[in-house]
Amino acid sequence: MATANQRGQHAHERRTGPGTEASDLHVLAAQLRRMNGEINRLVHGFAGSHGLHATDVQALAAILDAREPMTPGRLREHLGLTSGAVTACVDRLERAGHVRRVRESTDRRVVHLRYVPEAKEAARQYFLPLAEAAAATRSRFDDDELAVVVRFLTAMNEDLRLVRSDER
Q1: Partners of 99 in the β-ladder
Q2: pLDDT band at residue 7, thresholds of 50, 70 and 90?
Q3: Which is nearest to 62 in space by CA: 71, 52, 51, 53?
Q4: pLDDT in tens, 150-161
Q5: pLDDT tens per residue across span 49-106
Q6: How many CB atoms lie under 10 A from the CB of residue 157?
Q7: Radius of gyration over alpha carbons of the chain, in Å?
Q8: What is the 3-state secondary structure (H, E, C) of the chain?
Q9: pLDDT exceeds 50 at position 16
Q10: What is the model's pTM?
Q11: Cα(109)–Cα(105) distance, rounded to whole angstroms?
């Protein structure tokens, strides 16, 4: 039986003609929404199984992906939350055993958020099917095609970041 996403995708494909700019944009938008929905389904499942909120999982991803040690202030900016909301989020993550607050410098006011290795391994195991799906999909593209996909996603994320930060 087809899922709602699949039924919507098939109906959408019947309404748009191939090769037109409008249909290409609609197909792209539909596929991005579909991928977002599938990833959200996994994120919500992980959050639920660990007693977390979906925002907490976003925070974990931000801590994991950070190029330099993550601080509560940088996490607040990244997630677009208030200071109080970030404090509550970090408190939940710490109570659940996912992160630790660490003071690593001589300035005791500076707090870094560290992903607990055992919790990182649990997340890795939970999201292993996502990693395997990404690897299987990646194998169907050559390096040049993948470079275009990465360039598109990088530009899309940057444009979305700018939209998020605009005064509305």
Answers
A1: 115
A2: very low
A3: 71
A4: 999 999 989 988
A5: 999 999 999 999 999 999 999 999 999 999 999 999 999 999 999 999 999 999 977 7
A6: 10
A7: 19
A8: CCCHHHHHHHHHHHHCCCCCHHHHHHHHHHHHHHHHHHHHHHHHHHHHHCCCCHHHHHHHHHHHHCCCCECHHHHHHHHCCCHHHHHHHHHHHHHCCCEEEECCCCCCCCCEEEECHHHHHHHHHHCHHHHHHHHHHHCCCCHHHHHHHHHHHHHHHHHHHHHHHCCC
A9: no
A10: 0.75
A11: 9
Q: What was the pLDDT predicted at 128?
A: 95
Is residue 59 within 8 Å of 75, Cβ to Cβ? Answer: yes
- Going by C-alpha positions, the residue among 50, 34, 31, 32 that lies closest to residue 127 is 50
Instruction: Report the alpha-carbon distance of residue 39 to residue 36 in Å, rounded.
Output: 5
Q: Among candidates 98, 56, 50, 111, which has minimal Cα distance to 79? A: 56
73 closest CA partner among 56, 54, 90, 50: 90
As a whole number of angstroms, the distance between CA 93 and CA 115 comes to 9
